[in-house]
Design a protein that fits this description.
single chain; about 450 residues; alpha+beta; SH3 type barrels; Fumarylacetoacetate hydrolase, domain 2; eight-stranded mixed sheet; six-stranded mixed sheet; about 15% helix; about 25% strand; metal ion binding; fumarylacetoacetase; calcium; tyrosine catabolism
């Protein structure tokens, strides 16, 4: 992905809110979303700029953005899939047109035309941006994997295959929801310390701090994607909370996660494009000494996105007291042992066909240090050591009413800092009617 004028740190927008240092959405970002006006109306594709959303289809219709048949058709949809499937050159061209339209140097007539298609974010409802046909979640943090293996008492906490391939499981796309959707505590089979199994609400609710990538153009079945071209198939990224019921998951996990995960996964509503993130890459952590060399079909790069990712917790008591929440962790995808290009290349290495809109999760983004752990399980040693919160509360696992929210920013000297917005969701009590007797 080549850098161009859209990444220029000196660019400013005629929209003042896009020039504020704290904004996630300066003119250098221009993420996509799907929104609906809070007062009602149909869903539309939008572009984030400052504290506003530019209605893409309306801007094209008015001539504020130069039109083309393919772009017009894609922008008129109520999901991003058709836009994501466009030729990479046409996507880059659209980014340049948007950047020019929102730039401070844009002439008055065009600026006035564009201003008529802006919707304040506070007046919009953000929807699930992509029609997700398939969802694969990976396991790419050695730190997360090894800790969980120890908690479960495995003789070999880090599987032998871990450094040979990006381990993954096939998730449930039907239960993926957009930020702001709350998760009902699930019922499931749980094995207690004495070996008894009962059907009950999960007592070990956890979050998983993840980054996720959307597939743009897919591949034909039977044709693998070469590692050197895998990045061409990645359209953009979002934050993801792969909600987990660890007690259900650990009892059932023979082939892989199932009901302990499939009840809810939450993604942020903004898709930050791969082109916007082109300047923000860094080297992954070195692999342990003695680790086998990566096989050629997955080799060819040790860089990944360089982001600061955070998980925050706000309890019911904090909300009642007006406390905004407490940061639990701060981590970076550079802690992972595999990047998204390798995940995609591995996914297709047997000829599996990926399709536009497919979602790839990074797995929990955990690092070596205590303050870089990406889930409660790690922070509390699987519930054995309660987490002390600043207001005097403690947590071994998440409780009903707890709200978890993720944030992430990309920063690099010589470039503007850009963000992802929030991925937010709350734990609701288990449904009382779902009982063992019913």
């Amino acid at each position: 992905m080549q850098l161009n004028e859209t990444h220029d740190v000196g660019k400013r927008s005629w929209l003042d809110s896009a020039n504020q240092a704290e904004t996630d959405f300066p003119i250098q970002n221009l993420p996509f979303c799907v929104f609906r006006r809070a007062c009602g109306g149909t869903a539309a594709i939008g572009v984030g700029i400052g504290d506003q959303i530019l209605d893409l289809a309306a801007a094209l219709e008015s001539g504020a953005i130069p039109r083309s048949p393919g772009l017009d058709a894609a922008a008129a949809q109520t999901r991003l899939n058709a836009l994501m499937a466009l030729d990479r050159g046409e996507q880059s061209s659209l980014r340049k047109k948007l950047s020019a339209l929102l730039d401070a140097s844009c002439d008055g007539a065009q600026r006035e035309r564009a201003a008529g298609h802006l919707v304040p974010m506070r007046d919009a409802e953000l929807l699930l941006p992509v029609e997700i046909g398939d969802y694969t979640d990976f396991l790419t943090s050695a730190w997360h994997t090894e800790r969980h293996g120890r908690f479960k008492g495995l003789q070999d906490p880090l599987p032998k295959a871990f450094f040979s391939l990006p381990v993954a499981y096939h998730g449930r796309a039907s239960s993926i929801r957009v930020s702001g959707t709350h998760a009902t505590r699930p019922w499931g089979q749980i094995r207690d310390a004495q070996g008894g199994v009962r059907f009950a609400p999960s007592e070990a609710m956890d979050f998983e701090l993840e980054l996720a990538a959307f597939v743009g153009q897919g591949n034909q079945q039977g044709r693998r994607v070469e590692i050197g071209r895998a990045g061409e198939h990645l359209f953009g990224y979002c934050l993801m909370n792969d909600w987990s019921a660890k007690d259900i998951q650990w009892w059932e996990q023979v082939l892989g996660p199932f009901l302990g995960k499939s009840f809810m996964t939450v993604v942020s509503p903004w898709v930050v494009t791969a082109e916007a993130l082109a300047p923000y890459r860094g080297r992954m952590d070195p692999r342990p000494a003695g680790t086998a060399a990566i096989l050629p079909h997955l080799a060819g790069g040790n860089e990944t996105l360089d982001l600061v990712m955070e998980a925050w917790l706000q309890t019911s008591r904090m909300r009642g007291e007006g406390t905004p929440g407490v940061r639990l962790t701060r981590t970076n995808p550079r802690n992972l042992s595999w990047n998204f290009e390798q995940m995609l290349a591995h996914h297709t290495s047997n000829g599996c066909n990926l399709r536009t809109g497919d979602l790839l999760g990074s797995g929990t983004v955990s690092g070596a240090s205590d303050d870089a752990m990406g889930c409660m399980t790690e922070m509390t040693s699987a519930g054995a050591s309660a987490l002390q919160l600043p207001n005097g509360e403690t947590r071994s696992w998440l409780q009903d009413g707890d709200e978890v929210f993720f944030r992430a920013r990309a920063a690099r000297e010589g470039f503007a800092s850009i963000g992802f917005g929030e991925c937010r969701s709350r734990i609701l009590p288990a449904n009382a009617g779902d009982s063992a007797a019913s």
